[in-house]
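Deliverable D5.2: sample structural annotation.
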Amino acid sequence: MTRDGADETDETNETGETDGDGEPDPTVALEAMDPLEPYTTTEVASLLDVPRRLARRLLDALYVEDEVEKKTPGGEEKPIVWIKPAPRYTCPHCGHEFAVRFVHPVLSRAHYCPRCGKRME
């Protein structure tokens, strides 16, 4: 225990967030990824500046929670690819749930509901 009452095993690391055991929270990896962009474990490790094994644990945790998709293109000898799904929206007017699949600075956010056509606030 430190002077301020915090547990020493709960120190923040270079990413600034922990999950209680000194490792970054898996959402740090999710926030570093762009929607619909495929990433290998090595690429995510590089983005977060963490060891590859830690990146794999974070991605596995996100996969268990259905926060990322996991693909194995071309069989077992190819590296696993991780994909953050497109953001989902719910129209406040008609309740329609939908995802915006266009990842473009202008089109990456829902402006209008595709069902009722009303502006999303």
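Annotation notes: Strands lie at 38-40, 69-71, 81-83, 88-90, 97-99. The first strand starts at residue 38 and ends at 40.
The annotation will be released with the project's public dataset once the embargo ends.
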